[in-house]
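for the writeup, i need someone to sanity check this before i put it in the appendix. the sequnce is what the collaborator sent (i think, or maybe the updated version? ugh). structure was predicted straight from it, no edits. if anything looks off just tell me and ill rerun, i have time this weekend
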Amino acid sequence: MSNIQSSPLEDLHLQLGARMVPFAGWNMPVQYTSIMDEHAAVRSGAGIFDISHMGQFVVIGRDAEAWLNRMLANNVAKLEPGQGQYSFLLNDAGGVIDDLIVYRTAKDEFFLVVNASMIDQDFFWMNERCEGDVSLANESSLWAGMAVQGPDSAAVFARACPGQELPPRNGIGRFATAGGDVIVCRTGYTGEDGFEFFCAASSGESWFRGFIDAGAKPCGLGARDTLRLEMCYPLNGSDLSPDHTPLEAGLGFFVDLEKGDFIGREVLVKQKADGLSRRLAAIAYTGKGAPPRAHYEVLDADGQSVSELSSGVLSPSLGQGIGMAYLPVGLAKPGTELQIDVRGRRFPAVVVKKPFYKPSAQKA
């Protein structure tokens, strides 16, 4: 356990009664009250998550845009200052090293938010390929991070940060406080409206408490997982991996094959031309059953093994088991009947259209 890192908010989590578990090399809260309770709070009101384990890179320089466009799959050149986009860091075979969000904070300055377990690997990969007038800095240890998510998140922000404005969707803003500058990003991992908030590590507890006082319920990793999977948002290391491309994951919208050369592009161009052999599909139980989990075997209607789940949970919003798996393209079509093997018991399931759940704002 000596290698497990602690969030700057860990003492506060313990004071709030959180159950802590190791995750991606960090000691993090999995829940405070219950996953169901915290999930419902985000879907109906507002919840707050500790995301201090996520990494933050800053890229500055005259050649920063051009270099990032060679490193990442999406088109950084489309970003105006104050805008962000979802993207991928790919290996030479087009597989996903990491998925991340890149924000343009100024003409020649960018702020990247990367996954916790990939901070060191991402930084090494990018730093080894750094060229031109580019400065890459890993600022992960300087920041505490929190995500406020839910239909009431804007109201929570207004109460906690009077006089400040939330940036537009996928936007980024910065404002000064007595404890130093803070960064606000209008994004999240739940499908609901929300924002991610980064402040000096020493100010983290104060801000986290402030958002709770403004109406956000503390939530742990358990609810974060059920919320993101209902939306079919992939988890790196599970649904995304170096062995799968963004096209196979159904995320080609976030890949710009026309922008010019980038790492992994040739493989993706060929894959698109030849057609996919497998695709990440959404799978739902057709009845009741034991909760599906990652690595449970997926079988076709005849009982032949065809894959394994990359993710799986009991959906609190839908009351049924849901999961995702890479299936042969012929089986990845909505309506295809499957079976999920749960410790020797087989439960009927079907491929469904993504996402499993549409938040209230999308339904309207």
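The domain at 277-363 is CATH 2.40.30.110 (Elongation Factor Tu (Ef-tu); domain 3). The two ends are 47 Å apart (CA to CA).
thx in advance!!
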